Amino acid sequence: MGSSDCQHSGSESSPFLSDKSAKVFVAGHRGLVGSAIVRKLQSLGFANLLLRTHSELDLTRQADVESFFAAEKPDFVILAAAKVGGIHANNTYPADFIAINLQIQTNVIDSAYKHGVKKLLFLGSSCIYPKLAPQPIPEDALLTGPLEPTNEWYAVAKIAGIKMCQGYRIQYSWDAISGMPTNLYGPNDNFHPENSHVLPALMRRFHEAKVNGDKEVVVWGTGSPLREFLHVDDLADAVVFMMEEYSGLEHLNVGSGKEVTIKELAELVKEVVGFEGELVWDSSKPDGTPRKLMDSSKLLGMGWKPKVSLREGLVDTYKWYTANAITKQ
Amino acid sequence: MGSSDCQRSRSERSPFLSDKSAKVFVAGHRGLVGSAIVRKLQSLGFANLLLRTHSELDLTRQADVESFFAAEKPDFVILAAAKVGGIHANNTYPADFIAINLQIQTNVIDSAYKHGVKKLLFLGSSCIYPKLAPQPIPEEALLTGSLEPTNEWYAVAKIAGIKMCQGYRIQYSWDAISGMPTNLYGPNDNFHPENSHVLPALMRRFHEAKVNGAKEVVVWGTGSPLREFLHVDDLADAVVFMMEEYSGLEHLNVGSGKEVSIKELAELVKEVVGFEGELVWDSSKPDGTPRKLMDSSKLLGMGWKPKVSLRDGLVDTYKWYTANAVTKQ
Hints:
The structure is a homodimer.
Chain A lengths: L23 E4 L4 H12 L5 E2 L11 H11 L3 E4 L7 H6 L1 H21 L4 E5 L28 H21 L2 E7 L2 E2 L12 H15 L3 E5 L5 E3 L1 E2 H14 L6 E3 L4 E3 H12 L4 E5 L8 E2 L4 H5 L8 H15 L5
Parallel strand pairs in A: 1-2, 1-3, 3-4, 4-5, 5-10, 6-9, 7-12, 8-13
Antiparallel strand pairs in A: 8-11
Helix pairs in contact in A: 1-7, 2-4, 4-5, 6-8, 8-10
């Protein structure tokens, strides 16, 4: 029992899908990622989901987390709770971004192990990787170079979480795994005008331009940078796949492996939203990183495949946006 | 108020040495480092040291640490408490090495900030640096390459501690600093036959050979690798210097800047111990890393200087060893 990277067959690992009455604690169930995981588990027939809002259970409080695990004794834990935010938030509140995430992770992972949880999946993000990682970014790029300064606080916390899971697996032969998703989008995303990511930002801008009857939408840069996107329902599907199929030491990248240019993305969003004005590129403004793509060949090689095309995903997301997010302007 | 690396003048900072009645919490006061810091502070006239053994205060318990800080309200904190060990321990108990250190650090740093501590110094070690860092190792080498696998658990925790201090300084303008010492030696070191570092291991072996009348001591390798050593009393002196003089964002290396070959070290230890047999080199056995030296020019450039020569330090250590450690064989 040691640091094996190999994939166990379904019968050897804790069978996740075999008992839908199993108690599954989804930490962070109201966020973009957690809510998609809840939707997925419910669609599969899991009826015993353990869900707690932040005011019901503050995961940064060690004793509260311990009492919770002692009382509830979940069978499985999916750790999707985190302090997240954009560049400005990370730069302004670095203490929060590192301390809160370290506390959540340390409390949940330690309590889960100590209270007999059969398997835990820890979720992070692609920003754990070095700023200048090779593209596509393989799992072994971790800790091989300097981080992107604007999110190093969050990244260091997430790296520590991966190492916590690995340490507990090695020392205790406990089934803890980590998944690192690429750029996610979908229902429950953040569409805030100032700190949302590129995809929801474009969606919001085209929507507002359509509603306001604007003649054009101006987007910064040339549109040439390449990006990868994964619909959050695909991420939830990958989570279930990993819970069922993967019990290895190394963290796994979760991406589609498909890239689009920002230009292709913007044109697709414009079309899905139905904005009929002009899309103008202000090439005097900077482009971001030329390329950002995760190497998900390990997970894809195990047989998992994303199902949601970018077009379908944008249609789904826009439907959610118009029904749920617009009044919050 | 932000991420300034500059050294402020005495009147701007919390004056550490100006009030010897200040309450100073030395976490980890019984270890190699903590005990030296206590000796130093006592010699300077600090009479209000706050000291708690592990059984009196378990620093991994968040609520206990918070109550302690609320009740005691120390003015200053020197965080020298950690879960430490050699290669074998790190490999066997990786969960302990990462989790316990993360818990201690997160609890103490967060409680210290929240309970009005004026300044905190966090101590780590040179193993935070990449395995293949340039020699001498400058502070900027942090997170620029892969860690030494045998102590990555401890190293990731310590890196997170540095980032915690930086995050709290940036977000709260709170005076938290980090010091990363080179190889330390001195009273209270670990002389265990199986997991001690090279200097105490050599001292123990020459002593036992002397006592047993052995004809020779065989040391592995060629003796050519270069190493840096700092007597722990010098480290304590540097701690006081940093508490008084340094309020910057970046962590500081604490080393002597002086290297010796393992051969020079062994010959000196042999002489200090008074072993009169032969020192034999088994060059069929491997040497370790060719060179390991920290770049301490930043700290040395501020005016701090180590005072204890290697010879004097070995004499002092051997005196302590024969008086305190020999009966524990």
